[in-house]
Design brief:
The chain is of the alpha+beta class. About 25% of the residues lie in helices and about 35% in strands.
C-alpha cells in the first residue's frame, strides 16, 4: 500500500515552533520563509532554531479596519497577524482583550513580526493559566527541538 503524496511545501516545512514575538524580532533570515528555510531564532543555551511555521499566543490589542489583520501582544512585545478572515472559527477571537493562540507562517520579523494565520483559537476561558505557562512551554519545546537537531 502506498503512502499519500504531500505537497512539496507541506512535506519540506518543519513542524510549528512555539515562539515569543521578541525572538522573531531578533531573528536572522536563513532563507525565504516560504521555502521552509525560514528564520533563525535564538533558543535556550545559545542554540539557534530554524522557524517558518510558528505557534504564538497573545492578547488582542486591536483589530485593523480591514478586519483581516489583528495586533497581538505577548510578554515580549507586539506582533501582527494577517489573513484572519480566512480562518474557520477565527471571528470570535477578533475582540480586543481576548487571549488567543495563532499558528501561522512568518511573513516578516522586522520592525514588527508579521504572521499569516493558518489557525486561531480563543484561549480566554483559561487566559491566566495559559499566560503563566506560555514561556515555559516555549522554552521546553525549543530545548527539545534544539536537542533533536544536534542528535
Amino acid at each position: 500500500m502506498s503512502r499519500p503524496e504531500h505537497a512539496r511545501g507541506e512535506r519540506d516545512r518543519p513542524p510549528p515552533v512555539k515562539v515569543l514575538s521578541g525572538q522573531l524580532r531578533a531573528a536572522g533570515i536563513r532563507g525565504a520563509a516560504d521555502s521552509g528555510e525560514g528564520y533563525a531564532i535564538r533558543a535556550g543555551g545559545g542554540r539557534s532554531l530554524r522557524v517558518s511555521l510558528v505557534w504564538m499566543q497573545g492578547t488582542v490589542l486591536e483589530v485593523q479596519l480591514d478586519g483581516n489583520t489583528v495586533l497581538l501582544m505577548d510578554e515580549t512585545g507586539t506582533f501582527a497577524v494577517q489573513g484572519v478572515n480566512n480562518i474557520p472559527k477565527g471571528k470570535p477571537c477578533l475582540l480586543p482583550g481576548k487571549y488567543v493562540m495563532v499558528m501561522g507562517v512568518v511573513q516578516a520579523v522586522s520592525p514588527e513580526p508579521v504572521v499569516r494565520a493558518v489557525k486561531m483559537a480563543d484561549l480566554s476561558g483559561f487566559a491566566a493559566l495559559h499566560r503563566r505557562m506560555w514561556r515555559l512551554e516555549v522554552e521546553e519545546l525549543q530545548q527539545v527541538l534544539a536537542w533533536m537537531s544536534d542528535g
